[in-house]
Amino acid sequence: MPRGRYSLHDPHDHTPLGDEHFHCAPGPSGWRYVSQITTPSGDHAGSVDLALDELGRPIRLQLHAASWEIRGAALDGVTWVRTDPTGVHATEGNVRAHAFTGTSPAFLVATARLLRLTPDSPATRVRLVAFTHPVLAPRTVDQSWALVNSEAHATDNGPLTVDEYQVNALDTGEQHTVHLAGDVVLSAPGIELEDLESPPSTLP
Description:
Layout: E1 3-9, E2 16-27, E3 30-38, E4 44-53, E5 58-65, E6 68-74, E7 78-83, E8 90-95, E9 99-101, H1 106-115, E10 124-132, E11 137-155, E12 158-169, E13 175-181, E14 184-188, E15 191-196
Parallel strand pairs: 9-10
Antiparallel strand pairs: 1-2, 1-15, 2-3, 3-4, 4-5, 5-6, 6-7, 7-8, 10-11, 11-12, 12-13, 13-14, 14-15
């Protein structure tokens, strides 16, 4: 069960946004990721609880940030309920999309798990619902993912395969690179792996 800490920063001006303390593990039905997010000063800023089925689809998502809450799942595309800080008004959304995304590294692992690309796969288009911080406002985004390199590196615990993905935002043309090892993000825009207490899990 990998457990560790990511540092989060603005990918454009590198302003520190805080830390995400996480643990994740494959299970009998898929994969689960749980994290607590803190501000740069160490205050609690939110949480992520994401569970995937064996095909990589989100069977449960719970997000908290700035007293806002999202509960979502793959249902007729993806469906979610967004609750305001007072708890009085809840709005429901539904989009014919494949999965969710957001600032958490969990969503990069989840998208890679959903697409199951190989180096021979063509670039694959995916539609995602992104929840933007700090108020978890939903926004539909279209991306293209390609696995451009998969390389084994020797470690004390045996070979570690690092996958390099090229991700394109289809609305802006912006490109970026994501490096994953199993169910851990090694690097991505706005994300740095700072601490890892146990090796990544290999997702089948």
